[in-house]
Amino acid sequence: MDRFVTLLMGFLSVVLVNNFVFTKFLGACPYLGVSGRIGKALGMGLAVTFVTALSGTLTWMVDAWILTPLHLEITRYICYIVIIAGAVQLVEMYVRKFFPSLYEAFGVYLPLIATNCVILGLCLFLDIWGTDNLLEAVVLSTGTGIGFTVAICIMAAIREELALADVPEALQGVPITLITAGLLTLAFMGFAGMIK
Amino acid sequence: MSASSNSTSGLYSTALLTGLWRENPTLRLVIGMCPALAVTATVKPALTMGLSVIFVLICSNLVVSLMRNLLKPHLRIIMFTVTIATFVTICDLFLKAYLPKMSEILGAYVPLIIVNCLIIFRAEARASKSGPLVSILDAVGMGAGFTLALCLLASIRELLATGRIFEIPVLPKTFVPWLALQMPVGAFITLGLMLGLINVLTHKREVPEEEPAAAPGPGAEPQLPAPA
User: Where are the domains positioned within chain B?
Assistant: First the structure.
């Protein structure tokens, strides 16, 4: 039971309190760039969630069971990036085969998930947080992906409304998106006291 | 490349200068945003980050440019990332050895240079299509533009949040620090307002004078749509 509570807290923490987009600025590019339509943002978020969960788990396993025992920590970054690229390739092939219309809609963004900072960031933070068992790694990886999906969907919804708003000329486009993101961050800071 | 001999030097200077302003990665193209937002609470880490990016960018551009004829289309992204990851590892180990405190402050953001879209973008748009010299000049220009933007943002945030720049007090003691600017909120809003201001300035400047025709250099158009 205790273990379950720890996992649940960890999950809520990465989704709400330590959301990668709001507190660590990871994944800011797709967050600011792609999130114009909510349907697309959701698809993107789900793809990223899948890749994050897969590559977070895989890198944790490779790190804990291969690299650390063999003292190959120096090759850690290269291994991580190769695993992530592989996972993205897998998702790309799967989406192309089973969801051709979604594949068309994503276009160049799909392979670019490989360079999404959320994924590599998570792999690095799993190490920094000192995650020491597989289950925890899986839960945190999935949670991070969901946190990203939440952030990108909220942003897309706001931007759909923003398209109708009368924004000052100088702030149109990226500036107003950044300011919106800042206000959203402020709102999410309200969760900060929830988990110690 | 089809550049004739008298425009060759023009090509070099264009390669060097576009990154500084016209295609400044942070302020104009809005790519590589994670570090721009994350390490700019104070100037010192921002400067360190900028210099690290310059180092990685120069090395990776050089290597990619040298192996550009060997690249297979479907394997090129992974070749780019592996090259970049190698140099980032070097940079990370260097920082850990010689600047341990700074390495601790920057934390995961040093290895995250691997996925900084600026570096992959330059490898794709410039280094995989041009010779080593142009690629290096391009890297220097882009890197310097990135560093400049980071330091500018960081100095605004540090000045208003603590009253200091480079940890040297500049504002009088009566100044009430705006602590919010050191938090993530401050990063987003300061950068947003900065981009807005730049929009106003460039708009005013670009209306009277006509933009000179872009050099026929490869990768002159930033067509990569806001990568991850």
Answer: 15-206
A179 touches chain B (CB under 8 A): yes
CA-based nearest residue in chain A for residue B88: A77
CA distance linking residue A57 with residue B53, whole number of Å: 29
DSSP B174: T
Tell me the CA distances in angstroms from B12 to B17, B141, B142, one per residue in order. Answer: 9, 11, 13
Collapse the DSSP code of B200 into the 3-class scheme (helix H, G, I; strand E, B; otherwise coil) and give the result: helix
Across chain B, what does the average pLDDT equal? Answer: 82
Listed residue (B63, B57, B87, B92) closest to B76, CA to CA:
B63
Q: Locate the chain A residue with the closest alpha carbon to B81.
A: A81
Say whether residue A82 is in contact with chain B using an 8 A CB cutoff: yes
Cβ contacts of B115 on chain A, cutoff 8 Å? 81, 114-117, 119-120
> A interface mutation test: which of B188, B198, B204, B206 has the most A CBs within 10 A?
B188
CB A19 within 8 A of CB A125: no
Report the pLDDT averaged over residues B157-168: 85
B103 close to B87: Cβ distance less than 8 angstroms: no
How many beta-carbon contacts under 8 Å exist across A and B? 150
Instruction: Determine how many CB atoms are found less than 10 A away from the CB of residue A74.
Output: 12
Measured distance CA(B80)–CA(B60) in Å, rounded: 8
Q: What does the alpha-carbon distance between residue A10 and residue A126 come to, in Å, rounded to a whole number?
A: 12
Partners of A111 on chain B (C-beta within 8 Å) are 77
**How is residue A121 written in tokens?**
């960031």
Average pLDDT, chain A: 85
Distance CA A66, CA B147 (A): 37
Q: B88: which chain A residues are within 8 Å (Cβ-Cβ)?
A: 77
What are the φ/ψ torsions at residue B154 (nearest 5 degrees)? Answer: -65, -40
pTM: 0.83
Name residues 10-29 of chain A within 8 A of B (Cβ): 22-29
Give ipTM to 2 decimals: 0.83
* pLDDT tens-digit map of B198-226: 888 887 766 554 444 433 433 333 444 44
Nearest to B228 among A116, A128, A181 (CB): A116
Q: Where are the domains positioned within chain A?
A: 13-191
User: Is A120 near chain B, with CB under 8 Å?
Assistant: yes
Cα–chain center distance at A169? 31
Three-class secondary structure of residue A107 per DSSP: coil
